Amino acid sequence: RKEVEQDPGPFNVPEGATVAFNCTYSNSASQSFFWYRQDCRKEPKLLMSVYSSGNEDGRFTAQLNRASQYISLLIRDSKLSDSATYLCVVKPSGGSYIPTFGRGTSLIVHP
Amino acid sequence: EAGVAQSPRYKIIEKRQSVAFWCNPISGHATLYWYQQILGQGPKLLIQFQNNGVVDDSQLPKDRFSAERLKGVDSTLKIQPAKLEDSAVYLCASSRRTSGGGELFFGEGSRLTVL
Hints:
heterodimer; A: mainly beta; 6-stranded mixed sheet; 5-stranded antiparallel sheet; 11 strands; B: mainly beta; 4-stranded antiparallel sheet; 48% strand
């Protein structure tokens, strides 16, 4: 089983739609969780951290489920500019704190 | 604040040739990472430095890849000899700290094509 798994998609949604992505992780010692956004042929950039109680940033909501070992990202009222690849990142609590990336989920928002 | 600088942006070489990539992290960032991103995949960690010491290089193909971070600032990643499967974007990232939720800041990447 891969350390961090994501459905590669693509998720093809109309503007204004709500879309959700999940990401599962295998290391139960994982401590820190993030969503990064990567535009085509660009570098990844931090979208948001994921906190245990869940957190929201505008149209974006991130949730963590430690019991089932997954995190989720919900995007409400999708915009054309949300089209990108969303990368899930997991860091363990000890050792070398290596950030491990999922393969990413591709989102295409169409008019 | 200047971001992570990488060069060259693009490199085309033939298999069995060598190539080197350079990275200058954000000033004050102790941790530096080299990731390999193959088309359609997520970034895969090659090596992680804390200052000028190696924290993890378990996924670095040491028979052909090498990396160093002299003086704990700039870093170079070298591939010798290159193989076709090394075609990828090599991303350098830095963070202020290693533990906890330190954000990774990425450079624009160096795109390598091996013919």
